[in-house]
Design a protein that fits this description.
The protein is of the alpha+beta class. It contains 14 helices and five strands. It has three domains: 133 residues, Tetratricopeptide repeat domain (Serine Threonine Protein Phosphatase 5, Tetratricopeptide repeat, Alpha Horseshoe); 73 residues, no CATH class; 87 residues, OB fold (Dihydrolipoamide Acetyltransferase, E2P), CATH 2.40.50. The protein has a five-stranded mixed barrel with strand order 1-2-3-5-4. A hairpin with a 2-residue loop joins strand 4 and strand 5. Helix 1 packs antiparallel against helix 2, helix 3 packs antiparallel against helix 4 and helix 6 packs antiparallel against helix 7. The longest helix is centred in the middle third of the chain and has 24 residues.
Length: 378
């Protein structure tokens, strides 16, 4: 699932009332979307409506850092302040919304509520009534599902279907439904030609793997098939076999080019997951692959734009330790060393051994009760 589809699916989940599912889908992707306003707005909306006001606080605050004067974010923050009884801030935020949009109905309604509910007990009773939910910022937008458009086209398809199938059956037209998965464009440039197949191996030299001619060709074709099936990590594993073997220089060059088709996966899109124990037996065979490993973080080092720690692989249950792998992210993250986590990262080999270039982490949030909504510390 590509980035846009993840956000689209999350927005649809929120709009259908499946707030927890939306949160579970998005929270592991915080590194990928660390500068995405839409990502934080969807998460904040889901948390607000699920009753996770601490989460809503965190994500609306981050959204405001990206878009300082977005009315929906300002309204969300006003709602949170109203729940906390901090009416001065509520008024300031609503006035800021009305300055940008004088006809903003919800901001005006919140101001009216604050004026009428001067007594804290009256305000508390109003909050408990649940009527505040009517003033929540709008749900994140989500275009209709392709199924909606498919339904609109169903009648026309039914009418035309018989004629189309008859034409296909007669061999006059290629079947347009032969493949449901779009092919990766450009892969034809890395197909093996007759010369490659005639001389697939080198003679003389030393390699990690020695393959027969048939094995080289079969391994390369397997990698191509796996890429077409969007099983990128399994394909990279096969390409590493080619690159470490006695395959010809021409085939190795095409293997390197083929490897460039690999995409960075997410927790929900990675199809082939290699366990630490398997990788540790022969790390070189798995270099540059993405892995998902569970464990605990230790020696956490948080910089302004970087985060690094040592992952105690397998220690999430605190019963066994499979190994220790350094992890480095090129963005600032909050990592709790007291809680288990999952790390999605790209495996690299250094003189000290295996390391992970971090892509994303999945760890339950730990929010401080006194965290401020707008981050000003007021």
């Amino acid at each position: 699932m590509n980035d846009d589809r993840i956000l689209l699916r999350a927005a649809r989940l929120v709009r259908s009332g499946k707030y927890g599912a939306s949160i579970r889908l998005l929270e592991p992707e915080v590194v990928r979307y660390h500068d995405s306003f839409r990502y934080y707005y969807i998460l904040a909306s889901a948390c607000l409506r699920s009753g996770d006001f601490g989460g809503a606080l965190t994500y609306f605050r981050r959204g405001r850092e990206i878009k300082m004067r977005d009315p929906s974010v300002l309204l969300g923050l006003a709602i949170l302040y109203l729940r906390r009884g901090e009416t001065d801030r509520v008024v300031d935020l609503c006035l800021e919304v009305l300055e940008k949009d004088p006809r903003h109905r919800k901001a005006g309604k919140i101001l009216e509520t604050v004026r009428k509910s001067g007594d804290p007990d009256i305000l508390a009773a109003w909050l408990e009534s649940g009527r505040i939910s009517r003033l929540y910022p709008d749900l994140p937008s989500a275009p209709p599902s392709p199924l909606f458009y498919a339904a609109l086209a169903a009648l026309a398809a039914t009418v035309a279907g018989a004629a189309l199938l008859a034409t296909v059956g007669a061999g006059l037209l290629n079947n347009p439904f032969a493949s449901a998965v779009p092919d990766r464009t450009g892969m034809e440039t890395v197909n093996l030609v007759e010369e490659d197949r005639a001389r697939p191996v080198e003679t003389g030299g030393s390699w990690r793997l020695v393959l027969t001619k048939a094995q080289v060709l079969e391994t390369y074709e397997t990698a191509q098939r796996l890429f077409r099936d969007y099983r990128d990590e399994a394909a990279r594993f096969q390409l590493n076999r080619i690159l470490d073997s006695n395959a010809s220089a021409a085939i190795k060059a095409k293997a390197s080019l083929l490897a460039s088709f690999a995409a960075v996966p997410g927790f929900d899109t990675i199809k082939d997951k290699y366990e630490y124990v398997e990788v540790a037996r022969d790390p070189a065979a798995f270099r540059d692959l993405h892995v998902v490993w569970r464990g605990m973080a230790t020696n956490v080092r948080e910089g302004e734009k970087t985060t690094s720690f040592d992952l105690l692989v397998g220690y999430d249950t605190r019963n066994s330790l499979q190994g220790i792998v350094p992890v480095a992210f090129d963005s600032a993250l909050s990592v709790d060393p007291e809680k288990p986590l999952e790390v999605l990262g790209r495996l690299k080999l250094e003189t000290r051994g295996m390391v992970l270039e971090g892509v994303a982490i999945h760890q339950a949030r730990s929010l401080t009760a006194g965290t401020d909504v707008d981050g000003t510390g007021k």
